[in-house]
Each structure stands twice: as C-alpha cells, then as structure tokens.
DNA sequence: AAATTAGTTCCACTATCTGGAACTTACTTT
DNA sequence: AAAGTAAGTTCCAGATAGTGGAACTAATTT
C-alpha cells in the first residue's frame, strides 16, 4: 500500500469524510446559492443521508444556511485557510522576491503551487489596487493553460506528467488554448528547454504571462512565479524580456530555501 | 429538536466529521508544525484511529505532510475559502462603503462577522500596503476585546449574549482588556446606548478602534465595521469623532442590503 | 382547497470507524 | 557498530455511526 503522498493522484476512498467535503466543494464551486434539492440532484445521494450530512457540515461551520434556505460556504473555512496561508513557508520566503519582481516589471506577480491538476495561487502583488485585493489568492486554475501551470507540468518527471494529463479534462477557454495533447506535449518540451513558460491568452482572452518553476533541493517542483499583464500593454517582446527576470526571481527563492535549510540543521 | 441555525452554540455531535476537522483545526492553529506524536498527545485518540484519520485528511488535501513528517494545513482549504470569500454577499455590498470610510479617515477599515465567540474578519482596506495584504482576512479574534466583537455582543439579544459569554474564556491580552464579567456587561450596556463600540488597546497594545454593528431587516446582527489605528496617531478624541462616520457606514451597508432585497422579490 | 413540490424525521440495516496490540522503520545512545 | 528506544504504520474483531427507503410535515403553486 502506498503511503498517501501529497503528490499522488488517487480517487479518494476516504469514506465519510470524502463525501462530506465533496459537498462543501459542491456548494463552494457552484455559481449560485444552492437549495437542498439542487444539492440532492447533483450529489447523487438519498435524501435522508444528504440531509444529515448537510446538518453536520452546518454544525461544524463549514457550511451555512441563509435565510432563504440556501447553503453557502461557511466562515470557518476562512479561518482555517487564513492560518494555512499565514504559515506557508514558501509564501513567506518568496514574498520579498515577488515584490522585487513587481518593482522591476510593474505588472502583477503571482505565486502558485500545483495541487492535482490545478494551480492554486498562494500570493500575488498587484500594480495598484486593480480590482479587489486578495481576490485571486486561493483561486484554482487548470495547469495546462496557465503560465505557472505549464511551468509546473514541464517540471514534473515524465510518468507523473503523463498520469496528470490523463486525469485532466482539456477544454478551450479561449481560442488560443492548447487543446491537442500532442501540441501540449510539444509546448512542455519547449518549456523544458527554455526554462520558462508563456501563457499567450490561453486561459483568459487578453491576458499574457511568463512563468518559471521553483524547485527544492531534490529538484522536485514546489511552486512557480509569474508576471501577468493585459495583452494591449504586454507584447510578445515584453514577455521574452521578462523571462530572465522571472527565472532569476525563481532562483532567488530557491536560494532562500537552501539558505534556510543550511543553518537550520 | 432545534434545527441547527448558524448562530446556535452547541457542542458538536457531528461524529466522524467533527473529529476530522477538529484535527485540521488543531494543525492549523498550532504555532509550529506538528509531527504525528505531537498530534497524538493533543488529540487524545488512539494511535491507529488517529493515523487513519490523518491519512484521510491528507488524501483529501485538507492537510499535507511535508518532508520532515510534519503535518500542515492543506492547499485545498485555500481553494475552498477563496470561493467562500468571493461569494459573500455582505462583503460585496459592504466593499464600497469600507473604501469610503477609509477615504474619510485614512486609517485601516475592517469588516467582521461573529462566529460562536469569535469575530472573523471578512475584509479590510489598508492605509498603504502596511504589512502584508490579506494577512488579516479570515483571522479570528475573540469578541469580548475587539471593537467589532463588542459591537456584536451588544447587538445580541440578552439570552444569546449570556450564553455566549458563558462559553467565552476571558483572559487579559493587554493591561486594558476587560476581564471582569460585570465590567464587560456594563461596557456592553454603554455600547447599546451609544450605538458604537470602542477598543482602547484591549486586544493589542497600541491599537485603538471604533466599530458599529450592521443589522439585517429583522434587526439581527450580521456583521460589523471598524476603523483601527495606532494609539500614537489615534487619540480618544479621534475615536469619538469617527464614531458617527462608522455608524453612517454601517447604516449605508444596511440600506444596501434592504435595497437589494426590495427589487429582488 | 387540492395538488405538487420542498424539506425533515424515523429506524432497521450495515458499512465504516474504532482502538488495542503487534509490527516496522528511523533515530539515539553506549 | 550494535543494541535500545522512540516514532510511525498495519491489522482485525467488535462497536459505532452512517445509510437510505419511506412516511411525515411545511411551503408553494394551480
């Protein structure tokens, strides 16, 4: 029996717990508030069972039920996540380098990690308060069509990459999204050679980005940094010019990690 | 049997789920990474049981195990919480009014909600990027010694207030923290009369704050707004001057809520 | 007012969780 | 380096808690 490493991708056999948090996710990812019956339709569980599970989740504060009988994600999630965020070593070590990269480029900087087939953004530094701060932190985007995501894919050992791509449901977000498996693998090979990844409006129309991977001592991927900007302001040339800066930032974070482990022991 | 409303305070009897997320909380709130045995000591469960539970949590991405066998909060928490945050109606409606309040005062603005005996901060607007953005979002602080918290307490019907205070473990965070139950009740009475609450360095030394409650149509408390600043810059007088502004901001949010419910039906 | 839909409760059944003990692996000490 | 000790993992009979069909109540709709 394999021990459950963070990076294994397995169909969850976690019994009760799995079902429970699948419900939380169902509610959290829905684009509108869900009533009991909405959830019943989507969850494929008998009424009685579902009802009890929802009650438990509400009692635990993972879900809440508002005035019009709709279930919504609960505040306790926020509390737990804020601790997770505050304690992340990678985030803490990377923060100054993200800021430096922002100062150098003037564009938005992201720090992301790979979780299953998705990139989850751990931190960002924004130009001015563009839209609303923190709105992207914790956001999950598919790996195969984002800068940090593709840098992550390119950083994986081939068998894990294959397994991950097999699990990924590829669909076109924009007309530039790479949807052919072969084309994607060629892109990944190119990223391996170059040491950085571009996102040319593949996830969001009008948004371009350059990203580089961060590795730990054993050369396993732990995260990625990127510079992102609107296409009207960020041309192909700007992307290419920033690539060395992004790689340098990623390297600086790696050195930081190495430095921290040295004195520690 | 009472239906489990968000605001009921009950000892959780949620079986497996309750134990599981108690573990997540244990790991998330710990001030250092915990190894298996550390958790074993604190969780009071037999080895076998605990081990399986932790495995399940890791498989679900609620916890992660790092290289040196320490458990840490998982990325999936971030993902779920970011959806919770992005979808919060209160946050969305309040945002412009927080900004306006910030423009008027120049100090840090918080929006918080009550969860059991704690205030959880849903949003904030900060002076310049003071320390690190978003660091406070999701943060939980005790109700009895914070501005928003005391405003919340004063807004509760007496029986719920009593129940809540009975559950609260009161301890002095600073030398100004109100620790006597009687003094606290007097303070709450004063807040009820005034319509706003002060925090005079009761939670953190050197930090002062004014807060006001936000109610829904039925006059039940749903959240609070506050202006917070360092004591050297924010005197008693400034606090008193801001009180009307804070109350006005809270009222503006209430009108927003009322307006949204009008056209809707 | 009747019909329909939505939400909640009940209880026999059984899948899942429990926890003691044995086992394996990774450090520590002499 | 070998023995000792602590940390982490696996196993299985027994107990608990979760399951799900059906009956019931409450809220809408016709």
UniProtKB/TrEMBL annotation, chains A, B:
Keywords: DNA-binding, Transcription, Transcription regulation. The keyword Transcription regulation applies. It holds the Pfam family IclR_C. GO terms for molecular function: DNA binding; DNA-binding transcription factor activity. Residues 14-75 form the HTH iclR-type domain. GO terms for biological process: negative regulation of DNA-templated transcription. Residues 76-259 form the IclR-ED domain. It comes from the Bacteria. PANTHER family: HELIX-TURN-HELIX TRANSCRIPTIONAL REGULATOR, ICLR FAMILY, HTH-TYPE TRANSCRIPTIONAL REPRESSOR ALLR. This is DNA-binding IclR family transcriptional regulator. It comes from Mycoplana azooxidifex.
């Amino acid at each position: 029996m394999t021990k459950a490493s963070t990076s294994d991708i397995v169909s969850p056999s976690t019994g009760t717990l799995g079902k429970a948090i699948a419900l939380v996710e169902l509610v959290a990812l829905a684009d509108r508030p869900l009533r009991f019956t909405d959830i019943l339709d989507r969850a494929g569980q008998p009424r009685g069972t579902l009802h009890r599970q929802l009650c438990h989740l509400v009692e635990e504060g993972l879900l809440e039920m508002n005035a019009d009988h709709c279930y919504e994600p609960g505040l306790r999630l926020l509390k737990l996540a804020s601790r997770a965020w505050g304690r992340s070593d990678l985030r803490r070590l990377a923060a100054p380098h993200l800021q430096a990269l922002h100062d150098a480029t003037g564009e938005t900087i992201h720090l992301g990690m790979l979780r299953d087939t998705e990139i989850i953004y751990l931190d960002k530094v924004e130009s001015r308060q563009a839209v609303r701060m923190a709105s992207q932190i914790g956001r999950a985007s598919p790996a195969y069509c984002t800068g940090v995501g593709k840098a992550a894919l390119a950083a994986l050992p081939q068998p894990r990459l294959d397994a991950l791509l097999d699990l990924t449901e590829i669909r076109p977000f924009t007309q530039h999204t790479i949807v052919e498996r072969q084309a994607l693998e060629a892109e990944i090979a190119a990223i391996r050679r170059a040491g950085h990844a571009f996102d040319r409006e593949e996830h969001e129309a009008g948004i371009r980005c350059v990203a580089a991977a961060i590795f730990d001592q054993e050369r396993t991927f732990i995260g990625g940094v990127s510079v992102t900007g609107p296409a009207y302001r960020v041309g192909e040339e700007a992307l290419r010019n920033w690539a060395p800066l992004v790689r340098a930032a990623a390297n600086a974070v790696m050195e930081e990690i190495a430095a921290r482990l040295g004195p520690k022991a």
